[in-house]
Amino acid sequence: MRYFWIHAAWIPGVAFLFGFQGFPVRSVDMQRATDNITIRQGDTAIIRCYVDDKVSRVAWLNRSNIIFAGQDKWSLDPRVDLVTKGQLEYSLRIQKVDVYDEGSYTCSIQTKQQPKTSQVYLIVQVPASIYKVSEDITVNEGSNVTLSCLASGRPDPAITWRLLNPSAEPLEGEEYLDIIGIMRNQAGRYECKASNDVATPDVKYVNVVVNYPPTIKKTQSSETPVGRMGMLQCDATAVPTPEFEWYRDEKRLSNAQGLNIQILGTTTILMIANVTEEDYGNYTCVASNRLGVQNASVFLYRPGTGRDINGSACVSQSLWLLLASFACLFFKC
Q1: What domains are there in the chain, each with its CATH number?
Q2: Whole-angstrom Cα distance, residue 78 to residue 67?
Q3: For the chain, how far is it from start to end, CA to CA, in angstroms?
Q4: Mean pLDDT by 10 residues, the chain (333 residues)
Q5: CB neighbour list of residue 97: distance below 8 Å, 6 or more residues apart
Q6: Residue 74: which H helix or E strand, with range?
Q7: For the chain, what is the total number of helices (H) and then of strands (E)?
Q8: What parts of the sequence cross the membrane (predicted)?
Q9: CB atoms within 10 A of CB 92
């Protein structure tokens, strides 16, 4: 213990010569193995020593320091006192136990026959505590990433990692989690947990953002009659969020002359008011961020042309008729 106690060598010269009457003590043989008491940091430890009907002089020692001699307190530590129940108990109580209290404690007995001792070893456990964890990071797809999570505790804590996606399966890593060539599906919130079964595990989180270039996932073409409003749509995924542009041939379109461009997060919509014959045809949606660019064709069709309005290429009705004619000639129908 950190407080100053008098060295045990003073016992025969001082403690047992000043004539105090201690308590009768039920002691154990000095050859008996030391008992262990395990206590959590901050809790109160009571180290038991019981009496019988034999008159004795008694004292409590920690390592080689006197804590109590009979009822006289030699320790200056205010957290330490005696627990006595009549003349039946001479136990030592330590409040708000800390790691420096760990060690051997001896209840020393002087009987008329011979001195005896009862020894207890106090083990102080400390809950797991994470004292350093990686900060939130942003990286580009394909980069190598190392996340760190350092923890202390007694016994030493076990450290585990999870990526809190829907499965949240454990990841291979302890203090350091290495991710080689990180992919976009590995972005998210990483959980570091330190546990040693002393108390509730300590948990910290690291947010990992993975940048990647745009990918156009879906286009929506439109089959619109003359005089009605046509709507073309383009959806893309990217981090950072993509910027969108619309083109007709080589000309960039803007909010003018019956055109309206809306951008809603990762979706853009081109609205064409009062469609005319000149508006039919191919439009290009361009999605870009600082990592790359991707474009896709979106079509405004005349009604009844047989085009796939979802933007995938298909054969027009006239082409189908031509193919059917060739097939008929081939099979002599």
Answers
A1: 26-125 (2.60.40.10), 134-211 (2.60.40.10), 221-301 (2.60.40.10)
A2: 11
A3: 106
A4: 39 36 36 74 92 74 88 92 83 94 89 80 96 97 97 96 88 94 95 95 97 97 94 97 95 91 96 94 96 96 70 35 36 39
A5: 39, 40, 41, 42, 43, 44, 45, 122, 124
A6: none
A7: 2, 25
A8: none
A9: 24
